[in-house]
Amino acid sequence: MLRIDNLRASVEDKEILKGLSLEVKPGEVHAIMGPNGAGKSTLGNVLSGRAGYEVNSGTVEFNGKNLFDFEVEERAREGLFLAFQYPVEIPGVSNMEFLKVSVDAVRKHRGLPELSSVEFMKLARATSQKVKLDQAFLKRGVNEGFSGGEKKRNEILQMMLLEPSLCILDETDSGLDIDALQTVAEGVNAMRSEDRSFIVVTHYQRLLDYIVPDYVHVLSDGKIVKSGDKSLAKELEAKGYGWLESGEV
Ligand code: ADP
Ligand code: MG
Ligand code: MG
Fold first, then answer.
1. Where are the domains of the chain?
2. Which CATH class is domain 2-245?
3. Is the interface score ipTM higher than 0.95?
4. Substitution candidate for ligand 1 out of 14, 15, 16, 218 with most atoms within 8 A of CB
């Protein structure tokens, strides 16, 4: 599914990712934890091809292809989904229109017929209900004036509609109330399948009580410094990250 090998990447000429390697197989859920500024969001941004992030060396294979051969918009069509820590607002473009255009592009790429407006509206409404987002949010501008929790629900809505093969969720639990957190977790859990994988970036062990990962990794200073199973998250909660940085790995 995803194979990252010795990835080095910079932002504004400062190297942030310093030889990161990670392999995610189909059906797996990987959690990435780590101190602030370690490079967790940078990893998501580099994978999504966000402007300003420069890859210096290393490789990323996605479904057997070089991810960096794909333009940013192509990555989504290829099945990569990124839920950002700070989702963008697009005032003036209704959420429904935005979702339909995204879903149309993905379906076309997969050789599926385009959904009619009516079919899409039905699907979008039913899916909004699943993520407990009031249908009124489909008519509003994309994320315009949405609260943190509503933005997250909207992201899960997008994710469910796009049916990606790899979903990367960044700090989904930051500033979320427990209800929104559970909705996100339920959304992820409902979408778990043997051919879909997840990378969940989180500061808090709490989220991993709801989304139980197959693997937990600690990202520190641009590298994965420790990997384990879900018990590692508990250990981190109890001990913090200091013991890893001081070299007692
Ligand atoms: P994390 O998500 O683990 O908290 P980030 O990936 O956001 O860490 O940040 C890693 C480092 O990269 C930080 O020192 C941060 O200041 C820097 N950084 C990230 N994005 C930018 C940017 N757009 N411009 C300048 N510095 C950045
Ligand atoms: Mg951060
Ligand atoms: Mg971050």
1. 2-245
2. alpha beta
3. no
4. 16
